[in-house]
């Protein structure tokens, strides 16, 4: 898209955001809010930076290390945006895999989480995308991903349950077949 077309879209969105602010009851003419629509656009571009990358590419850097036991990266903080309400949801992801022949850098797991979280999302899809990425690129004996998150669309609107959290789990390979491995993972992330 040409620069002129992009700028036209930005101006249209700014106008729409100003209309939304007025609809919500915001009075015109408050100087401190003149730049709010543009700041909102910039924020949304940051919230959705994951669309402008392929998170699986982070996993392509591997090392030939003999490892038969699980590798667990836990408490990976993330922030995402609910695709239904454009309300934030945030929490932690826990990722474990049992390598077959190769491992990746620990930070690469966190980058995959970040890459998929920084999109309009639902937690269930996010959990699946992370597990599927690790499975497809690293081809481990098994992978399991658990996410615990707080959704502002649940706590600050609608049902307004402030303490509610959502927990999702996806597993592949030996983590799907072996209840003891799943149990060990769940104990490790507590």
TrEMBL record:
Residues annotated as binding Zn(2+): 82, 85, 153
Keyword GTP-binding: yes
GO biological process: one-carbon metabolic process; tetrahydrobiopterin biosynthetic process; tetrahydrofolate biosynthetic process
Pathway named in the protein's UniProt entry: Cofactor biosynthesis; 7,8-dihydroneopterin triphosphate biosynthesis; 7,8-dihydroneopterin triphosphate from GTP: step 1/1
GO CC field: cytoplasm
Catalytic reaction list: GTP + H2O = 7,8-dihydroneopterin 3'-triphosphate + formate + H(+)
Keywords: GTP-binding, Hydrolase, Metal-binding, Nucleotide-binding, One-carbon metabolism, Zinc
Cited Gene3D superfamilies: 1.10.286.10, 3.30.1130.10
SUBUNIT field: Homopolymer.
Similarity section: Belongs to the GTP cyclohydrolase I family.
Record protein name field: GTP cyclohydrolase 1
Annotated source species: Pediococcus stilesii
Lineage: Bacteria, Bacillati, Bacillota, Bacilli, Lactobacillales
């Amino acid at each position: 898209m040409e620069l002129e077309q992009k700028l036209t879209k930005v101006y249209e969105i700014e106008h729409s955001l100003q209309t939304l602010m007025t609809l919500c009851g915001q009075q015109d003419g408050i100087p401190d809010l003149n730049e709010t629509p543009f700041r909102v656009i910039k924020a949304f571009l940051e919230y959705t930076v994951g669309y402008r990358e392929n998170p699986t590419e982070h996993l392509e850097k591997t090392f030939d290390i003999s490892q038969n036991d699980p590798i667990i990266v836990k408490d990976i903080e993330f922030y995402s945006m609910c695709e239904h309400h454009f309300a934030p949801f945030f929490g932690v992801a826990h990722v474990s895999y049992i390598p077959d022949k190769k491992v990746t850098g620990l930070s690469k797991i966190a980058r995959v989480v970040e890459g998929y979280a920084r999109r309009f999302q639902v937690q269930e899809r996010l959990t699946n995308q992370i597990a599927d990425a690790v499975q497809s690129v690293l081809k481990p004996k098994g992978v399991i991903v658990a996410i615990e998150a707080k959704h502002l669309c649940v706590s600050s609107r609608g049902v307004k349950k402030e303490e509610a959290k959502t927990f999702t789990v996806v597993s592949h390979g030996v983590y799907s077949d072996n209840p003891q491995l799943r149990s060990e993972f769940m104990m490790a992330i507590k």
